[in-house]
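Retro notes
What went well: the complex prediction finally ran end to end.
Inputs used:
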Amino acid sequence: MKIALCQIDTTVGDFAGNAAKIVAFAERAAAAAADVAVFPELAVCGYPPEDLLLRQAFAERHDAALAEIAARAPRELDLLVGCIAANVDASSGARPLHNAVAHVHGGGHRIVARKTLLPTYDVFDESRYFEAWRAPESNIVELHGMRVGIVICEDGWNDATFFDRRLYAIDPVERVVAAGAELVVNVSASPWSAGKVAFRGRMVEAAAVRHGVPMVYVNLVGGDVELQFDGGSLAVKPTGAALQPVVFAEALQVVDTAAPWTEDVVAPPTEQAHHGAIVQGIAAYVRKFGFDSCVIGLSGGIDSALVATLAVDALGADKVVGVGMPSSYSSEHSVADARALAQNLGIGFHVLPIAPLQQAFDGVLDPVFESKEFGVAEENLQSRIRGTLLMAYANKHGHLLLTTGNKSETAIGYCTLYGDTNGALAPIADLWKTEVWALARWLNRDGVRIPVSSIEKPPSAELRPDQLDTDSLPPYDVLDPVLESLVVHERSVAATAELTGMARAEVARLFAMVQNVEFKRYQFAPTLRLSERCWPGRRMPVAHRYREA
Amino acid sequence: MKIALCQIDTTVGDFAGNAAKIVAFAERAAAAAADVAVFPELAVCGYPPEDLLLRQAFAERHDAALAEIAARAPRELDLLVGCIAANVDASSGARPLHNAVAHVHGGGHRIVARKTLLPTYDVFDESRYFEAWRAPESNIVELHGMRVGIVICEDGWNDATFFDRRLYAIDPVERVVAAGAELVVNVSASPWSAGKVAFRGRMVEAAAVRHGVPMVYVNLVGGDVELQFDGGSLAVKPTGAALQPVVFAEALQVVDTAAPWTEDVVAPPTEQAHHGAIVQGIAAYVRKFGFDSCVIGLSGGIDSALVATLAVDALGADKVVGVGMPSSYSSEHSVADARALAQNLGIGFHVLPIAPLQQAFDGVLDPVFESKEFGVAEENLQSRIRGTLLMAYANKHGHLLLTTGNKSETAIGYCTLYGDTNGALAPIADLWKTEVWALARWLNRDGVRIPVSSIEKPPSAELRPDQLDTDSLPPYDVLDPVLESLVVHERSVAATAELTGMARAEVARLFAMVQNVEFKRYQFAPTLRLSERCWPGRRMPVAHRYREA
């Protein structure tokens, strides 16, 4: 049997576009003599549809699109398409929908699989929408004389022999194999995070080896605001023979179950994968939002330089503009480094000095500022003047503003709400500062794009004279592992101190900083998810009294 | 048996404070000769703890606090206390925690009930944290010779004879009664929304009548950022005899199962309840955030006037400051109405004209603004200058900034990100404009606090000459029911047009406006939840292509 892995990019709610794409890939699959074409999870409506699923009209439009796909796809081809399906048992007390797979053939379609394991953690809320299917062993369809077991994304992520810790008691893969499946197809929308391509490869291979059947894993590709789907679709035989996955691009790959597969899964190195995910994420967001260009405040520092470079790779140099906004506290090299970056990248660049605005605000605020001592209000004011200038520029010229904050400063709140946090998208707020440097150096691997000075100078917010980040923080190579332990692994202050060697009181101070600035992250821009624990997936109370000593 | 309903206000993560309060109420219950004292859901750690539950250290601190409560509470008293409990079956594939109730007595404690129905909709994410308990019939403890069945919040909200539509197949109340419970206690954290007090009364009475046993419903009170718990604890006998609930205040009420209960449940009228919820919400947020005062931009319009009045009722007039920021487009009455309000309320008031700042921005932006035509950029700039002034004032004086947007304008995006959306809390963003007027008139019932002119003048953003909201929108008494249908009930454009009589193309235009500005709500301030469908509980994709015609 020849199976086409249709790794497509869908758009939430774009029923006409998604249906047209599914039909086009089906035609390509048929032209390549495939017997079966497999599409990702919720391919008909796009993933994740969130509360659009609560609209009855959305489900009706979905069903019409699925019928249209069936009417227009090549009739001799068998399609397996991720979709939603009404829960016929809902009247007795249950969610009205299942996350499902339709078998499309001969102009018609029927639901042949429903999802059992509903991810409800991190950024995932599937229990909010779907009823879990209790009988995964029924998810089998016979195609061309072969019994094909179907699981949906998370269904394939609960093997007791592969995972140390499991969230669910049932393993749907085990169930469909026990029920006679000779091949298992996973219809998936599994977002990328660092290390995910290699991990998926090991997991799918382990399942093929354990169960003695081939595994085909078809994943969504493309950016949906925060979630970045890498594709990385897989086909693995019990011998370990595999198909090389394609990442961050649409692909149609055909495998023949009767032929030998010989390639090893090679995963991209970390910086290359970060680059692929962020570039995809910027391009997808700007496009899905109906824009085609962006503006970035360029401080001369590494964060904004990196975001500008990634934006150029996503949109093209003619679609990116940088704005330098020096104050009297800005160092001499700030504008020079920003200008050098703009020249290297070939992007437009403007300088808008903020001193006249600082003076104007000082004049208006003078009657109501009894204390004239320079403090947080004055520091934040500079950042908010810059944020207002950038938004005015963006509004006037029809650009999206990108936010340049990284994960380290977003963790501890070294950012100003309504100032440097302004922006429609935060491309690197899930990269630690040490990862920012690594990615910048990788981008310079074939020649300098980001000025070396921006990479090598000591980090500073430049909001008061001679300010350095290290005035109040440990160096980032010391800080980042501590934050990773506290924020990503949710290890205790005590355990983090023991693990990292930092004094416990200092770890406790950092943990309190992280917890105290949840209000800043609450109003932060949508953040590209690049790890298994990004801000949109870490849901902490805004106001609470929990501290650790 | 005498039961003390301990309606307390807890703080998330404040283990010492919550434990001290539980012990203090237990002592008061013992002094009132109660046999049993019942506390709300998750009283030990506060509700909702969200991702703090993922920290092992949090669970350890919780268990220590529960042990301390047991050691310090009166030994002869039986306490039923909402808490978390380890899931002993987690190793076989399950969530590690249950939402539970501990029976505290004689210096020790044991878990006697676990939650079966985990709300995972609206603002609730309990499936993210807890394993559902499959055997609610085991939630029975014998106290003073009486078999007491225990359910936890949502467990009491799935009666097949009371609800038309059910999310779950199991009714835990039915199960504990069938297993012999002679009294059912509901340990709850049920947030308020309009009409909730009366609804709960009907629901609990229906259960008491149906099952022929008394029902005791002990609810949390107090504000936790967005969620406002009204308390409103209930005790109802099968005869319908009840205890009058106390709303928006801590309370300890003792009922004797052997004595007659005679009162009717009287729920507060809508405006009084809105007032109670919002005042509690502002006070709780400001206090839990470690502040004691706030600043509000006063435009002379109804929204900011209402927020200032509610803030005075929450914090006191000496803790509220108003700032008027007229531009050249502001009408003459704007500052006059704002000043009159400040005088009526007895709050501080400053006027900071923004013309010098508009001129300064115009000067800096002039070289990069090729088109000088007045447009969205210029409108937004005024709002962002005001937002920056307010934040500077708030930062300098240690106030929290309150956001004054209402639900109608937040729905359609008549607000400027990083401008008038700035603020730590949005007290009225879940009130339609028509509800804003109703609440303002109610606040003036014993004399004018909000100037009549602010209530009666036509709404205007005053961002360009002679601008009125009705230039581009229908009047609010026409608009609000349409938005309610689209946003709260998620009815289709077609159904909404039919229901309201508005032309279908106009409804489609409004629906597209709502869907197009999800990015503004994504970065909006925490919003007090006053309805069953508030912005934090409506989770829509930020970028998608779904429209209805």
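What we learned: Chain A touches chain B through 96 residues (CB under 8 Å).
What to try next: split runs per interface for comparison.
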